[in-house]
Write a structure and sequence with these properties.
250 residues, alpha/beta, Rossmann fold, 7-stranded parallel β-sheet, 8 helices, 7 strands
C-alpha cells in the first residue's frame, strides 16, 4: 500500500517572486501598503518619498532593497533616480502627490498651473525615464482621483481626473511592450484623507459604511491588491480601473 502526498490548494507560489517593484511615493498610505503587498508576493521593493525620515521608517517596514528621497515633481530628480537604478526592473507604481482643492477663479495662476500640470507631467516624466529600464511586459502604474460630478472647490482635481485616462491610454501605445495603466480611486481611508478632512473624517467614514454596497470603507489594502493584479495580468494596458466601493451611487 502506498501513500500519496496531496498538494495543499491554499498554497501557491508568490505572484511577483524574483521581481523588482519601484514605488514612487511609498513612505505612507497606498504606496506603503502596496510595498507591503508586493513584498508578500515575493518582490524586492525600491521606495521613494519626499521626506527622508518617513521614508526610512517605511524602508525598515518592508525591508526595501533601496530608497531615494526627492520631490517627484522635479524632472531632474526623476531623471537622476531612474538613471541610477539597477536594470531591469519589473514595475513602477506612482502614488506621489496630493489633490489641490479650491475655487478655480480664486486660485493664483502659478498655483493653478501646478495643480493642473503636476500629475500629468509627472506621468510623462516617469514614463520617459522608466520605459527603457522596465522589462517587456512590466507595467507603469499610476493613480488618480476618481472622476465624479464637478463641485465647487474640486475643479482642478476633477479636471486632472478627466485627463489622466486619455494620457495613460496614449502612453501605453508609446511605451509598449511595457504596459501603462491607471487606478482611479474614490475615497480611500488613508492618513492623507484624514489630514484633508480633519474633524469630518469620522462623519465621512460613517456615511460610507452606511451607504456603500460593500458595507465598509475602501482602504489602502484594497488598492494594493488591485495594483498587484494589474502588475501580474499582462493582458492589461492602456486601461483605467476604478476602485470606490460604488461611491458614485450615493
Amino acid at each position: 500500500m502506498t501513500s500519496a502526498t496531496t498538494a495543499d490548494p491554499t498554497q501557491r507560489e508568490p505572484e511577483l517572486l524574483g521581481q523588482t517593484v519601484v514605488v514612487i511615493g511609498g513612505s505612507s498610505g497606498i504606496g506603503l501598503e502596496t510595498a507591503r503587498r508586493v513584498r508578500a508576493e515575493g518582490a524586492d521593493v525600491i521606495l521613494t518619498g519626499r521626506k527622508p525620515e518617513p521614508l526610512r521608517r517605511a524602508a525598515l517596514d518592508v525591508e526595501a532593497l533601496s530608497t531615494a528621497a526627492f520631490d517627484a515633481n522635479d524632472p531632474a530628480a526623476i531623471e537622476r533616480f531612474f538613471a541610477g537604478l539597477p536594470t531591469p526592473i519589473d514595475h513602477v507604481f506612482v502614488t506621489a502627490g496630493s489633490p489641490e482643492y479650491g475655487r478655480l477663479l480664486e486660485t493664483k495662476f502659478d498655483d493653478l498651473r501646478d495643480a493642473l500640470g503636476d500629475r500629468l507631467l509627472l506621468a510623462i516624466e516617469v514614463a520617459r525615464n522608466a520605459v527603457d529600464r522596465v522589462r517587456p511586459g512590466g507595467t507603469l502604474l499610476f493613480i488618480s482621483a476618481e472622476l465624479s460630478h464637478p463641485t465647487v472647490g474640486t475643479g482642478s482635481v476633477s479636471t486632472v481626473a478627466a485627463a489622466l485616462p486619455a494620457l495613460i491610454a496614449n502612453l501605453a501605445l508609446e511605451t509598449a511592450p511595457v504596459r501603462a495603466n491607471l487606478i482611479a480611486a474614490g475615497f480611500i481611508d488613508t492618513p492623507l484623507s484624514a489630514s484633508l478632512l480633519r474633524d469630518d473624517i469620522e462623519r465621512r467614514r460613517d456615511q460610507l459604511r452606511a451607504t456603500l454596497p460593500i458595507g465598509r470603507v475602501v482602504g489602502p489594502a484594497d488598492v494594493a491588491a488591485l495594483a498587484v493584479h494589474i502588475m501580474t495580468n499582462t493582458a492589461l494596458t492602456g486601461a483605467t480601473f476604478t476602485i470606490d466601493g460604488q461611491q458614485l451611487v450615493e
